[in-house]
Design brief:
Blueprint lengths: L1 H23 L5 E13 L3 E2 L6 E2 L3 E7 L9 E9 L11 E9 L5 E9 L4 E6 L7 E2 L5 E2 L1 E7 L6 E2 L3 E11 L2 E12 L2 E10 L6 E2 L5
Antiparallel strand pairs: 1-15, 2-3, 4-5, 5-6, 6-11, 7-8, 7-10, 7-13, 9-16, 11-12, 13-14, 14-15
């Protein structure tokens, strides 16, 4: 009987110690949303045969997303093009194309890179196109807006990669940062939004593509 009591008592101490340690460990609390079906925005309905001129001449399409499920939209993704005469001999150069992301609240931000246009000597704040399992944390550079595409006839231009990429972001709530990602895909003038996630545990990183 004494031996049994001793073993039982030792087990309780160990179990209590492990429970205490576990309660102090931070765990990821991931809010994940899969957009079904994928949502695609585009400013171009069609291109005229042979000339490649977009129809309509001027157009903008955008979508807003509530990243933390609080009923308030947090980010705007947009694509646009517009006509501005530049050349009679090259009609396509008269069309300017732009796409990008903007945080609605100035305390929130998007993971970005600095792109230097050597021809015009201008710095552009462009999207940091992330890959699966890239860490999204305080080590990245952030800005309230980011350029995905900016094509102009005579001026600084940028065109990011096509296909699937992850957008890293952070939002500030109650004095703490929450990190997250959005999966987007680019094809021609189309921008598709597929899914997104947010780590609801304050100040804790998230990996691109992490859902739990």
């Amino acid at each position: 009987m004494k031996i049994i009591l001793k073993i039982s008592f030792s087990f309780c101490i160990v179990f209590s110690f492990l429970s205490c340690r576990k309660s102090h460990l931070e765990v990821d609390d991931i809010y994940y949303y899969n957009i079904i079906p994928d949502t695609t925005i585009t400013s171009v309905s069609s291109y005229y045969p042979f000339s490649g001129i977009p129809n309509p001449n001027d157009s903008t399409a955008s979508i807003q997303i509530d990243l933390d499920n609080d009923g308030i939209n947090d980010i705007t993704l947009s694509v646009s093009h517009y006509y501005q005469w530049q050349s009679a001999s090259n009609p396509l150069s008269n069309y300017f194309y732009q796409s990008g992301l903007n945080m609605i609240n100035s305390i929130d931000s998007i993971a970005t890179l600095n792109y230097y246009d050597t021809q015009f000597g201008v710095n552009l704040t462009v999207l940091n196109f992330l890959h699966i399992n890239d860490a999204i944390n305080s080590n990245l550079r952030y800005h309230t807006s980011a350029t995905i595409k900016s094509i102009v006839f005579w001026g600084p231009s940028y065109n990011g990669p096509y296909g699937d990429s992850y957008v890293g972001f952070k939002i500030k709530r109650n004095g703490n940062y929450h990190y997250g990602w959005i999966l987007i895909s680019r094809s021609g003038s189309n921008l598709t939004i597929k899914e997104f996630a947010l780590n609801r545990t304050p100040n804790r990183k998230i990996l691109a593509g992490q859902t739990q």
